[in-house]
Amino acid sequence: MTCSGGFMEPIAQGAMSPFESGVFSLVVYTILVAAFIASQLFLAAWVGEKKQSVEKSRPYECGIIPTGSARFRYPVPFYMVAIFFLIFDVEGAFIFTWAVIYEDAGLAGYAQMAFFIILLLAGLFYIWRQGGLDWKEHKT
Asked: Does domain 76-129 correspond to CATH entry 1.20.58.1610?
């Protein structure tokens, strides 16, 4: 709504006021955050020490001086187990979220989560039967 001549007129359809629904405050906040980040980066580059040494150029290995190649080849089953872990870990987040509201979800929510868990168990059983969780190398 705009005010002209003492009475209120509606804003034209499709036009958006910068003060409507917090857009102005979002723009101001974004500008302030960007300015703060830029100032911190500038101060760190300007004030920080720039002395080079052997210790600073060495890769950090938890206090152990690195030896050998950094290109160690992990076996494929390691990556497969890691991916399966991530998949099932994310599904755990869905189950925990459901556990918080299970009383409000009622019987329908319980049935849906039971189906979801059964589907997860079927997927885990399939991966297990296909040998996806085996660490040993398969000779072909």
From this structure: yes
